[in-house]
Design brief:
The chain is mainly alpha-helical and 491 residues long. The chain has 22 helices and no strands.
């Protein structure tokens, strides 16, 4: 178990640092692209990407997550899933390529024909790396995954910016995506020297299918509902509206996934290994929830306060409408990180039936928001999403409580007060520095700095679990000691 703890901490360090560097590179590249291209360009690629994201769940049909969860996995399992992925990837490429005219007709955008033809090849490209990623994740080996992602992001990003500068428009985004996917998979194969076993066994797939099937259905529903908003906006409005909405949504995802993504990514394989040790399992859950909420609510609050400054300074004035949408989207941003922790509890226990029931319940509620929300426009849908997300977190807590035999109140005490603290503290700098609204840099420094100081000070005074865990992790990394030494030397 000590070895698992050591591997988990090492995996977290690698994934977190690598994620920050990789996403930092991607973010810098996106800044250049946002200034060189139009919201309509981003809206067009989003129309194709939502179809790809939704279809991508069919790639391994839950077999990849089953490889991670299952304890006894053989080369036959890995080989069978690999060749299954290649077959399905080729099939999806062919289907999307042939369906391009229907995509054009649905959105009424003639430019989408060539874009869809080109982007359809991403399925077969990604098929070769999925088993490798699952194998590395199971072993908590994130170092090699991060190296591949980083190199691919840098090379593809530079090519995308050069093409955008040359006036290639939306095709700069298409070529960037294809090169990133291709390089990432080639590097994964080269770094790991992965050679798939020339074995295919229906029996091996069936052994994985019991757990994987329900996870696939859950993933299918999750993917459908995560992308349905973009499909509806692209259909009802126009490419520019979708571009503004996607900019706000992607910025929210970038913040939240960077803040807590490493912990959540490592949680599933780590908790799966602890699934029979109830005491350590519950202790890990407690720590994860509090750490996740503390960090995510700090990030959400900070960027709510400086939202206008961040978007206009980074992407330019042409993206000003995204500021309004971004603030509304942040109202539901807290739900994702804590929900990932909670659903990982159920998945790690191997209870895919409960996992599926939970997803169906949440999607039924979310369906009402799609029907009602868009009656009031994009803004109405986003506000409804905040309400739906809160209900979803409550359902996640209920199911996680049943799985761990811990009372719901135990989860509530470790969750909701961070939301209250952040919500109250956001109001102070948001209104206090409103007179500096047009002085973006000064407003960001004063408003953002005030919120940061207040947030850490209040959590310290209240001695919240998340704050104590965060400070403990900083000490473990010896960051505070290094800062203190440098300060003393300076004096």
């Amino acid at each position: 178990m000590d070895n698992l703890n050591s591997k988990t901490k090492k995996a977290f360090a690698w994934d977190f640092s690598g994620r920050m560097i990789s996403q930092g590179v991607s973010f810098i590249i996106s800044m250049f692209l946002a200034r060189l291209l139009t919201p309509a360009d981003f809206g067009l690629i989003a129309m194709v990407n939502v179809i790809i994201a939704f279809s991508g769940v069919f790639m391994d049909m839950g077999l990849g997550v089953s490889l991670i969860q299952r304890k006894d996995v053989t080369d036959e399992h890995y080989g069978s899933v690999f060749w299954f992925n290649v077959f399905v990837g080729a099939l999806l490429t062919a289907l999307l390529y042939l369906s391009a005219p229907f995509v054009v007709k649905f959105y009424n955008q003639p430019e989408l024909l060539g874009l869809t033809h080109a982007m359809s090849f991403i399925f077969i490209i990604n098929a070769f790396g999925r088993v490798i990623s699952a194998k590395l994740t199971k072993a908590l080996d994130f170092k090699r995954q991060i190296v591949a992602q980083l190199i691919a992001a840098i090379i593809s990003g530079v090519i995308g910016v050069v093409l955008a500068f040359q006036g290639k428009g939306v095709w700069a985004l298409v070529i960037q995506s294809l090169i990133a996917a291709g390089l990432n998979n080639i590097l994964l194969i080269a770094i790991t020297r992965f050679k798939p076993a020339f074995k295919f066994s229906w029996k091996a797939l069936k052994e994985l299918w019991g757990f994987g099937f329900r996870m696939f259905i859950s993933g299918f529903l999750d993917s459908l509902y995560n992308n349905l908003d973009a499909i509806i906006i692209g259909k009802l409005f126009n490419a520019s509206s979708l571009g503004f909405y996607n900019r706000a949504k992607n910025l929210k995802n970038l913040l939240i996934q960077n803040a807590t993504g490493s912990l959540n990514k490592i949680m599933f394989p780590s908790l799966s290994a602890l699934q029979l040790d109830y005491e350590r399992f519950n202790r890990a859950v407690s720590k994860s929830i509090q750490f996740t909420m503390f960090v995510s609510m700090f990030v959400v609050g900070l960027f709510f306060v400086i939202s206008k400054d961040a978007i206009l300074l980074l992407f330019g004035n042409q993206w000003e409408f995204s500021v309004h949408l971004f603030r509304l989207i942040l109202l539901s941003a807290y739900a994702f990180p804590v929900s990932v922790v909670l659903v990982n509890i159920i998945a790690a226990k191997g209870n895919s039936k409960a996992f599926l029931r939970l997803e169906i319940l949440k999607k039924l509620i979310q369906t009402l928001n799609f029907v009602i929300g868009f009656i009031f426009g994009i803004e109405g849908f986003i506000i409804g999403l905040a309400i739906v997300s809160t209900i979803g977190v409550s359902l996640n807590i209920y199911f996680a409580s049943k799985e761990t035999k811990l009372p719901m109140n135990w989860f509530n005490k470790k969750t909701w007060h961070y939301l209250l603290i952040s919500g109250v503290l956001v109001a102070i700098p948001f209104f206090a520095f409103d007179f500096l609204n047009e002085k973006l840099v000064l407003h960001a420094l004063l408003a953002g700095g005030t919120f940061s100081i207040l947030y850490f000070a209040v959590n310290k005074i209240l001695k919240t679990g998340g704050y104590l865990i965060f400070m403990e992790e900083l000490k473990n990394l010896r960051i505070l000691d290094r800062i203190r030494v440098k300060f003393i030397k300076t004096k």
